[in-house]
């Protein structure tokens, strides 16, 4: 009996030998092969020009929001803001680039108020522009927008994690939690 248990233990111990390591278990959906994220430059809540290329060397999350959103956008903004407070996000130099889907009402004053009321961190850039400036970004990221009932904007709600080389690595739906991002950033940086 003892020999059988020792043999079984040896077999189990060697079961992984010589095989390929299993791929990381990301919580976001891996984009394979990773493609270079569409380039853009827009204006943030402070009137500064911000580009995705400016995030090179760091991880960035690109998402699409609007200040008058009654439901999903504040949740996404809050979750991403919580991610920015984590040690793994600080090590990654994580930045959030939130692109407006409401060029008419997302004025500089409205965006500054939103950033202040939601206590968004300095690494959170809320990017605005005219319809002509924003539409190419929406198209580049395959974001659909349409007027909704009662002054709302129906739009694609997701987040894309862009790696330090500017490649889209993972996509998350609107239900992604801060823990999902922290987990995946840890894996990408070799912490997990």
Looking at this protein, list some descriptive labels.
192 residues, alpha+beta, Glutaredoxin, two-stranded antiparallel sheet, 10 strands, globular
Account of the protein in words:
This protein is of the alpha+beta class. It has one domain: Glutaredoxin. It has helices at 2-14, 72-84, 87-92, 108-117, 131-140, 178-188, and strands spanning 29-30, 41-43, 49-51, 60-65, 95-100, 124-127, 145-147, 153-155, 158-162, 168-173. The chain has a 6-stranded mixed beta sheet with strand order 1-10-9-4-5-6, sandwiched between helices. The radius of gyration is 20 Å and the shape is globular.
Short description:
By secondary structure, the protein is α+β, with helices and mostly antiparallel strands. Helix content is 33%, strand content 21%. It has a six-stranded mixed β-sheet with strand order 1-10-9-4-5-6, sandwiched between helices. Strands 2-3 form a two-stranded antiparallel ribbon. It has a two-stranded antiparallel sheet with strand order 7-8.
